[in-house]
Specification:
The structure is a single chain. This protein has 250 residues and is mainly α. The chain has one domain. 65% of the residues lie in helices and 2% in strands. The chain has a two-stranded antiparallel sheet with strand order 1-2. Helix 2 runs antiparallel to helix 3.
């Protein structure tokens, strides 16, 4: 357990050394315990008051995850309401991903259209497009747990015009698991993964991958069933529907 040192400017530490998920949870838990004790002490100015807290973050590295873990710790203490923390965290992730997707679809798509059809860059983009078309859900889910990965992947998926509805479905799964993981890391005692924070990350990633794999398998089985029906004698392919279709550019 690393030591937390406060100075005249508050808590100053290096990210991943002193400023870790476990230490943020420890400070949040100590603050929540102090406030609850003060609210129950008759001699305190806070006696009888309802515990309320506003948690914000800026654009610094992992600040959103630190804020979510802090909110989870306070939710375990009674405020804020845990389901609300999960929903807000997931909604924020979903909106941010769609903003990145829209930027890639707008500017990135036009840039890709200008590439020479027989160039190396065009060939690389075509490979990326085929990979995203077949494994887009898994790629998007894994990228959610990689620093900087989600931005690169969502921009690329927008640039190659990955279908919006499919992007929304898989991103909802990724963002939902992310919000659940981030809040519960703080909620479950705050220090549950203090000695092994990687275990907490793997727990959230495993949850997201499990759900995504189930969806991918169901989609694959459905496509296989449609293909089998289309190949039956006397079956009108138009009535069954196409087995696969290119990404919708609209």
């Amino acid at each position: 357990m690393s030591q937390i040192k406060f100075g005249t400017d508050g808590w100053r530490a290096v990210v991943a050394e002193g400023f870790t998920f476990a230490n943020v949870a420890r400070v949040a838990q100590a603050t929540a315990d102090y406030w609850k004790a003060e609210c129950g002490t008759r001699s305190s100015e806070l006696f009888g008051r309802e515990l309320k807290v506003v948690i914000g973050y800026d654009r610094r590295f992992f600040s959103d995850r630190f804020a979510q873990i802090t909110a989870g710790v306070f939710a375990a203490s009674g405020a804020p309401y845990l389901p609300a923390v999960i929903v807000v965290a997931a909604a924020g992730a979903l909106v941010g991903d769609h903003g990145s997707y829209a930027i890639g679809r707008g500017g990135g798509g036009r840039l890709l259209d200008r590439l020479p059809p027989d160039g190396r860059r065009r060939a690389a983009i075509d490979r990326a497009r085929r990979g995203i078309a077949t494994r887009g859900g898994l790629i998007l889910t894994v990228a959610r747990y990689i620093p900087g990965g989600r931005t690169a992947v969502t921009l690329t998926m927008g640039a190659v015009r990955y279908p919006r509805r499919r992007f929304l479905a898989f991103d909802a799964l990724a963002a939902g698991s992310w919000g659940l993981y981030s809040a519960l890391v703080g909620y479950v005692g705050g220090l549950a993964f203090e000695q092994d924070p990687l275990r907490g990350l793997l727990l959230g990633l495993g949850l997201a991958l499990t759900v995504t794999l189930v969806v991918e398998v169901v989609r694959w089985l459905h496509g296989r069933h449609r293909a089998a029906r289309a190949g039956e004698p006397g079956t009108d392919a138009a009535s069954v529907g196409t087995v696969s279709r290119p990404a919708d550019a609209r």
